[in-house]
Amino acid sequence: MMPPTTTPTHSSFSPLSPLLCLLISLSPFTPFPLPNPSSPSKFATKHTMPNPYSFLTFSLLLLLSCHLLNAQEHSQFGHAVDRKLLGLKRKEKLSHFKFYWHDILTGRNPTSVSVVPPSLKLNTTTAFGLVNMIDNPLTLGPELSSKLVGKAQGFYASASQTEIDLLMAMNFAFSDGKYNGSTITILGRNCVFNKVREMPVIGGSGLFRFARGYAEARTHWVDFKSGDAIVEYNVYVMHY
After folding, report:
1. Which of 28, 43, 65, 168 has its Cβ near the most Cβ atoms within 10 Å?
2. Considering its fold, how many domains does the chain have in total?
3. Do you know which InterPro entries this protein is assigned to (predicted)?
4. Neighbours of 154 (CB within 10 A)
5. Which domain, by its residues, includes 52?
6. 13 pLDDT exceeds 50?
7. 47-68 pLDDT per residue, tens
8. What is the Cα–Cα distance from 103 to 168, expressed in whole angstroms?
9. Contact residues for 111 (Cβ-Cβ < 8 A; gap 6+)
10. For 205-222, how does the pLDDT look when each residue is reduced to its tens digit (9 = 90+)?
């Protein structure tokens, strides 16, 4: 007596192997044969349906790829960029600026204010340790009433115990014409009793992005009793 014939059902299919899942993930709708009700012992090759295993694998691999790309992007804090993306299409040019820096310590509205007094532990004549915060006017001429072109904002500090040498850290924040809103940054040593003091330009913003150069300072006038001073600045800047 012949054993009863078992009709193949959808649940009798073997699970897809991991390798096959990876291969069929190239197409989330890979067809596979369906049982033909009219011929229980044969599979219909013309009927297809979306493969759920393939779609799940494709979705997981897509999510994994996105995660890996995102992780790679955040794992690198520096990379090369095209100069044109920052607007650096033109050649560098050299610009010269001349203005007067007014250091006002007296009066109703001083623009230079002591925020750290000199060290009391050291008996020096240089006011070593003194720090002044400044918001000094920059004018076109030596008179305070002449045209205002910007402000010098930052601080200077007495950095020597043997002579009057200042550490200058300030931004020339311009407010005139096309330079309005742009800045030039100065950081350097200022030996105030030298006829000419040279300090480096270390950067800038606005029209002075990637700026480099130097500034020359010459004392135009000083009141040794009050400390008020007017200094002529000539700034030479390479910028785009």
Report:
1. 168
2. 2
3. Allene_oxi_cyc_Dirigent, Dirigent
4. 19
5. 16-73
6. no
7. 555 566 667 777 777 787 777 7
8. 13
9. 102, 103, 104, 134, 135, 136, 137
10. 999 999 999 999 999 999
